[in-house]
Specification:
By secondary structure, the chain is an alpha/beta fold. Helices cover 49% and strands 13% of the residues. The chain contains 24 helices and 16 strands. A hairpin with a 5-residue loop joins strand 9 and strand 10. It starts with a strand and ends in a 13-residue tail after the last strand.
Length: 591
Amino acid sequence: MSLDLGTLPYFTPLVKDYLTNFERTPIREFFPLAPDAPHEQFRTVIDARLLREKSLPAEHRSTVIAAIRSQHEKLGTLCNATERQLEKLASPDTVAVVTGQQAGMLGGPLYTFYKAFTAVRFAQSLERQFPEFSFVPIFWVETEDHDLEEIASVTVLAADSQVKRITYVPTERGMNPEAPWRKQAGRLLLEAGPLETFFEELRASLSPTEWSAPSLDLFRQCYTPDRTMGEAFTALLLTYFAEDGLLAIDGNTRELKVLEKDLFRREIERTPELSEAIVLQSVKLEESYHAQVKPRSINLFYIDDAGERLAIVEREKGASTEGMREFFLKGSRARFTEPELLATLEAHPERFSPNVVMRPLYQDSLLPTVAYIAGPGEMAYFAQFRPSYAWANLPMPLIRPRLTATIIEERFERIFTKFRITAEDVLTEAHGHNIALFDAMIDSTLGPRFEQSLAEIDRALESLRTNVSSADPSLDGALTNLKGKILTSVRDFESKTIAAERKRHATTKAQLDKLLAAVLPSGELQEREINLVYFLNKYGPGFYTMLKTLLMPVLAEPREHHIIHLLQPAPLSENIARTSEGAERLSAPAN
């Protein structure tokens, strides 16, 4: 089963127009190509990228390849498939399908897995359509961001079917939880004590199964005290996808930043030129949609001696001395003249860190990117960023949507059947409230029907009063007493019936709440909240292999949200599943 993205309230008008109505809406003004651009249009992106690659010195690509190889070697993930991909990447006719994500605990939400899988399969599809070129999938591991809260937590469905969030808390954060965290989260060295606390809380939260121990062992093997958060994330990602030929790169190294000193220097020397171009684009975008990001005057951070990531800010011209431009680090006393800042860039480029505006330019200056696999939020970014590629003299890649899906377990199929509802009924209600769904299941006529019956009983007994009084006037009072007793008994019966109905509704609501927690945890799409560890714990550590098989046919249509039904919680080798209907052949820019 699959749902048209246009029917779901979890995607913005910008995303819906980009994916479902590109040619007939203003969105076409903000992207060079539609997500399903024809073959000949996509060929222009390939040609533009290859032209740029040929203008670069040979050592540029060799340095990138060496950085990727070094990371894989360090993590023990340099398999035969990786070697073949690195050999392909050495060719000047090889380009890349890139995706990326912040390095988070246990790989982050399900959409990280979906991103990587989409990149792998799309690269394979492009190779079939453009046999004269080679395509490699590359995952950009973002380790420079300092948003620790966002990446340090994992969300699962707990044993009580409630959404549970488990957080890794480093010692420094635990000692001073209120202090702002300004260090690069991906560079955080994992600690034995906090790791053990995290895994113990995770184990206690999940339902115990025969797969609990081996599944948690898989994650423990990647997340060890001798690794940073970024290294652990990459090790897990490559456990899932190294054999599929996925390459991983962390751009946060001196060797790679040396290659892009000119890009950073351009931003410093010509600020706020880049930001102004994006602001103009954003103003135009907001006439029809929304702007996702606000650029800074200088779109670079600086890593100081304490490891803190601080924004670079230019002092107002009136505050500068001798007519020379001056800069300071926000939240610090450090000061630089322009020559001093540029000299620091020349000597220590690793101290400079791109923000959300500069990151895709840094990434696509390093890599031969022809397509980027994006989530909904990233699509909004790229709608603003088209002028930034012109500013950097870079060809803008095709922005291709990642797969989007919801997994439905067999235990919830019974609830769907019992209440005669579908996944579509649940997913199309805004933010998981499903008020209309609940109201339709409650018998709101029970009270009025009892009132009608009581009135009819009262009238029937009153109709006997004249005849009873004529027979014996003393029976008039007895009739009144009888009527009172009958009506009281009916009232008591009404109370018991309504109590039973309320109890039945409470059971119904509890069942539906469990369903909502699984399908729309915290009122969001499952893929944005739940971590893969929940499914591995239930179905075995090989579930990620099975999931790739289930997802294979549904990549054909990027305009749809797919429903993946797991039919029975059996061991992986016996599990039977069905997927959304869809063509087996992947969709790619084609005639």
